[in-house]
Amino acid sequence: MPDTPQLLAFIAAGLLLNLTPGVDVFYVVSNALRQGVRAGVVAGLGIAAGCMVHTLAAAWGVSALIAASATAFTVLKWVGAAYLLWMGWGMLRSRGTLNADAFAPAGGPPAQGLPLRTVFRRGFLTNVLNPKVALFFLAFLPQFIAPGTAHPAWVFLALGLLFNVNALLVSAGWAWAAAGMARRMRASAGSAQSAGRGLLWIERAAGLLIIAFGLKLALTEAPTGR
Length: 226
Prior knowledge:
The protein is an all-alpha fold. It is about 75% helix and about 0% strand. The radius of gyration is 19 Å and the shape is globular.
């Protein structure tokens, strides 16, 4: 494992990267706005599970194959971009899935919206189908593994797990903040209907951002230097 200064640097860098707004953050926030903290945390769990797949793949060399193969990278890139565009388009076409009544106090009626297993699956697929995530783990984690380290694959896996635990904690924070904002919006709007309209426009804005991420992924060039 890295020494203490390296490990602290790794944790700090991971937290900063996970705090940076991106498709994962917007997915967590949109689900927390729609259905509350639990849905946001489940979205974060799906994202973390997808990242762990890439961590395992990178540790055993599959991500290196993707980086070296233009065909593998391109196929995964287009599948991932299509999925992001599809998800973003669905959010744009929403007709009220952001329900302000979903943020009822404890003991109130349960939130209405997507099943949590669907929230998890979409977060998982968002990451698994993104080759940039694979390349990120392949490029980022080895920087914190000293040359000559015994069992580097296991160290890689341990660092990947630590990164994803930190990411899950950050996702939970985003979910808590988004659900709190939704409750405040409902209280200030004066009615669930007007608050629901405000939340709906937030979801559509998030949909536009996810579409933008999909387009950016589609335009990503395969790694050079093979």
